[in-house]
Write a structure and sequence with these properties.
The chain starts with a helix and ends with a strand. It contains six helices and seven strands, in the order ααββαββαβααββ. The chain has a seven-stranded mixed β-sheet with strand order 3-2-1-4-5-7-6, with helices on both faces. Helix 1 packs parallel to helix 3. The mean pLDDT is 92. It has 210 residues and is α/β, with parallel strands linked by helices.
Length: 210
């Protein structure tokens, strides 16, 4: 247990430190790999919205003005930047530090739950997905986009090599595929799936049973 706690604390410190350069680094991938994924995801959001792993708030500018937004992250440094971005944009949002494994919200609280490029770095992404489903209202929508294990064998070999360094350093995985868990969840019906860039990026929507 202590080993797990120490590892999580180390990852928290890593992402706090990473906050200073995160926008610049992820901006490269937004431009060359992820395309319009942020706009696409936020365009699916309606009603009371929860964004898990909101980071520095890069999605804030893309949400419709009609949504009521709550965002959580485990990095206080990331959240400070997100709060400043929300203020600059004039986009009201409730932003708080929280653990995606144990979301501090009642069952059936949100109409939409969003996560963009965050499940790759949440230690137990299946538990986080279960929590996202729990806090969705019946008929609510789960909207995800992330980099996943590639459909190309040579690329997967590179991803496997990279994980030797990125998982110990910051808990970042390249071989996960959230869709596998969504397909197995009897509480969700998949509405839409698309995969592109050698199968490296996948975005999906699913609805919670009424």
């Amino acid at each position: 247990m202590a080993t797990s706690d120490n590892r999580t604390d180390r990852w928290n410190r890593y992402w706090d430190k990473k906050s200073a350069s995160y926008d610049r680094e992820i901006g490269f991938f937004d431009l060359h790999l992820f395309g319009d994924s942020r706009q696409w995801v936020c365009g699916q959001a309606t009603g009371d919205v929860l964004e898990v792993a909101i980071g520095t708030g890069l999605n804030l500018q893309f949400y419709p003005e009609t949504v009521t937004l709550t965002g959580i992250d485990w990095s206080e440094q990331m959240l400070d930047l997100a709060r400043q971005r929300a203020a600059d944009l004039g986009h009201p949002a409730t932003l708080q530090k929280a653990d995606a494994h144990h979301l501090p919200f009642d069952d059936a609280t949100f109409d939409t739950v969003v996560c963009t490029f965050g499940l790759c770095a949440i230690p137990d992404h299946t538990q986080a997905l279960n929590e996202m489903t729990r806090v969705l209202r019946p008929g609510g929508r789960l909207v995800l986009v992330d980099h996943i294990r590639s459909s190309a064998v040579p690329v997967r070999a590179v991803q496997r090599f990279l994980e030797l360094f990125t998982v110990p350093l910051g808990g970042e995985h390249f071989l996960r595929r959230p869709l596998d868990h969504i397909r197995a969840d009897s509480n969700l019906d998949i509405d839409h799936v698309e995969r592109f860039k050698l199968g490296l990026v996948e975005r999906l929507t699913a609805r919670k049973h009424e």
